[in-house]
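Re: that chain you flagged

S.,

Sorry for the slow reply, it's been a week of failed gels. I finally had a moment to sit down with the sequence you sent. For the record, here it is as I used it:
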Amino acid sequence: MLAAIMSLAAQQRLSLDYCRYHALKSNKNLLVADEKKTQSEAIKQMAFDQFLPRVTANGTAMWSSRSVQLLSDEQQDNLSNLGTNISTSIAERLGNGIIANYIANTGIVHSISGRINNIGQGLVDDMSIDTRAIYAGMVSVTQPIFMGGKLVALYNIASANAEVKDLEYIKAVEDLVIQVDEYYWRVVSIENKYRLAKDFCNLLDTLNRNVGEMVATGVATRSDQLKVQVKLNEAQMALAKAENGLSLAKMALAQLCGMPLDSDFTTEDGDLGNLPLITDTTIDMNRVYNNRNEMKMLHQAERIAKESVVIARSTFMPNIVANGGYIISNPNLFNGFEQQFDGMFYGGVVLNIPIAHPTSFHSVKLAKSKQREVKYQVSEAKEMIQLQVTQISQQRKVSMKNYLQAESNIQNAEENLRLAQASFNAGVLSASDLMGAQTAWLKAFSEKIDAAIELKINDLYLNRALGETQNLNY
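Prediction finished late last night. Pasting the structure tokens below so you have them in one place:
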């Protein structure tokens, strides 16, 4: 007795919101969908960054075994011996005359030629650039001004993709909620049928004892008792099956909610009681279209297709880019290649005008075709959604009628069982007839459970078809 009390106390009562909350927390598919949302937001930000200027910095250092020479060896030799060559040319022109001998004896030509040689050598030295070590750096800023509309279109496509990922996440949440609700109400259904099977076994067990007493007093026959015992054995087998089915259903719900598979719990809605009667209301299909995630995704697909046409057309548009920066180098390019750093600022505008290419025409044609394809998909989706809503709404009406009929059958079955029990106690009704009334009572309650669960599930499907967001408690 104490063990049973402790076991009952250890059982946890789970609500539907509790199951939803823990399923959403532990579901790996939702974690993946959430990461895809994060990725799409990053892609959207990357598309926006294309509007901003791009700043780059480059640097280089190069060493070589030889320097760059602006003059050839022959030119260097001519400059270095420029004075000597001039004096030799003058001497050859003057010959061996008195003036030539006088100039030669005074050493004037030798002095002048030496100075000219020094000047020529100086020019050679000044024009010799030491490029064995070169250092250069550049900071560049590039700002797109007009790219044919493709940057705006790419950002709009990235925004649409981000919206699609948000909608996919919401759809994944709704799919999981649908699954949790189905598993939850399955447990509720089997819990009720398990209790019903126990009650039926108790009725048969009581009847079996009563018939046994009647057999002992000679009022009933052994055959009557055997019929009751056979029915009791069948009921006990059905009870064992219900208990096993309840264990498996609880295990499936526990796995979905991230709980240990051997968790022992009951549901807060285990006692179905009287379900509220939901009156039928007029369905506004335009509102349904606006609420359905599938339509929202298709609208984003239309937006993407439209922007794809803009991107295709941008291949015909001119591109304008502004560019500027600062360049620094050593040797100094601005002061005779001296060994020091110096630089300059620069800026400009680059204009690119595409003339023609066959691929551009075909890409526009392809983009327009995809745009029309999405429009056809939107039209077809509306028809399918209207068909789905109509079918589920009709199914819900049928399930409501079944539930009301089951409620009426319950009242008749209970009254019939009460009268049969009274007649049996008075000795005017056989045990077989009483078992028939008990079986009818069992069937009526079982049908009520099935009708109630069917009504719950159809309400769930109808809300989903109407695009009404589930009220989740986090």
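What I noticed first: The chain has 13 helices and six strands.

Talk soon,
D.
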